[in-house]
Specification:
alpha/beta; seven-stranded mixed sheet
Length: about 375
């Protein structure tokens, strides 16, 4: 089922009510605003893999909700708890293969597996046990909606606070890829910081890169900025250094799909070169991401698995070939920015800074101080 709506009242990538999940088809933006139905975890995994839904927080929420909408039918087909749990595990395996880099997805799958393990150890191996476990899965998935939105607003507030003593009421912020309402449940991470500055009347102008090869900046971030009536300009990725040289840019704020123990971050390819340019031009470079994007099991960015996307994303635009036939293509979806290039990592519980000049960021120490890990 597809629902077309060319003039949405508010920006959202996910529409959910118990038993029903609709996702905005982001491949059709900005020309068409269409929501399509997701009825089970297989369809959820396909939507994630095809990038009809994208953005680390939105991917995680979509995975959980696509499993949640499948729970009633799946529970009705099982009378024993163990077989029901095994069926859920198979679906978690499918969801885990949809996108390999965004850690939020795997943290959500880990939480769902903990719910499974607790259910198997405490619930009766009966139809009532099956019903209770299904309800626990649904409740957890639904709780992610409210938490993601509140986390994003907190990230926006902490990010805006970074500039409250800057003496400037006309800030110019550059961002990359899409990190707004379309990449989350609502409000956004890096774009949430820009939104918060705009709400506080501190933003003079936002600059968005087109973000090749998949144009999330041109198609999605520009769409959001226009929709929210935030003053903004779109540039190509290759213009960023010249922009910093010619215009006063107060900060670069980007998102992250994974932050590892030493503060290295994986984000949409092109982020690394922005960090290098920012360092050269003495422009602060901030990463905005929820704690769910932090993966302290990896020591450094060298250990992050970088997803490679199909060559057509680089050679074609909206199905039209723009590159010469026969040319080879390398299309990594992400790159890794070393923490030494990052001024701070903005989370919903505060900003992670370097302990001293020219050191890496100790993410574990920050989380421990917040009582989170």
């Amino acid at each position: 089922m597809t629902i077309a709506n060319s003039t949405p009242k508010r920006l959202e990538a996910i529409r959910y009510q118990r038993g029903e999940l609709f996702l905005l088809d982001q491949l059709k933006l900005p020309h068409h605003t269409e929501f399509f139905s997701v009825r089970n975890s297989v369809e959820g995994a396909q939507a994630i893999a095809l990038m009809k839904v994208r953005g680390a927080p939105a991917i995680a929420v979509t995975a959980a909700l696509s499993l949640a909408v499948e729970m009633p039918a799946l529970a009705n087909s099982h009378s024993a708890l163990k077989s029901f749990a095994q069926a859920i595990e198979e679906r978690l395996e499918t969801l885990g293969k949809s996108r390999p880099t965004a850690v939020n997805l795997f943290q959500t799958i880990g939480q769902l597996r903990e719910i499974l393990a607790l259910g198997l150890s405490t619930l009766p191996d009966t139809t009532q046990g099956v019903k209770t476990l299904a309800e626990n899965i649904v409740n957890y998935a639904e709780s992610m909606l409210e938490k993601d939105l509140s986390d994003n607003r907190a990230i926006g507030a902490f990010g805006a606070d970074l500039f409250k003593n800057s003496g400037s009421k006309s800030l110019r912020i550059l961002t990359h890829c899409n990190t707004g309402s379309l990449a989350t449940v609502g409000y956004g991470t890096a774009l949430g910081v820009i939104r918060a500055l705009h709400e506080r009347n501190q933003l003079a102008h936002a600059y968005a890169t087109e973000t090749r090869p998949y144009n999330q900046g041109a198609r999605l971030t520009a769409f959001e900025l226009v929709f929210e009536q935030i003053p903004a300009t779109l540039i190509t990725d290759s213009m960023a250094s010249f922009l910093m040289a010619r215009e006063k840019i107060d900060a670069v704020v980007v998102g992250a799909d994974r932050v590892v123990a030493n503060g290295d971050t994986a984000n949409k390819v092109g982020t690394y070169q922005l960090a290098i340019a920012a360092k050269h031009h003495d422009v602060p470079f901030y990463v905005a991401a929820p704690v769910t994007s932090i993966d302290t099991t990896l020591a450094s960015g060298h250990e992050i698995h970088i997803e490679e996307r199909p060559s057509q994303e680089l050679t074609h635009i909206f199905g039209q070939r723009i590159a010469a036939d026969g040319i080879g293509v390398w299309n990594p979806s992400f790159d890794v920015t070393p923490s030494k290039l990052i001024s701070g990592i903005i989370t919903e519980v505060g900003v992670i800074y370097h302990r001293a000049l020219d050191t890496t960021i100790d993410v574990r120490e920050f989380l421990k101080g917040k009582g989170l890990r």
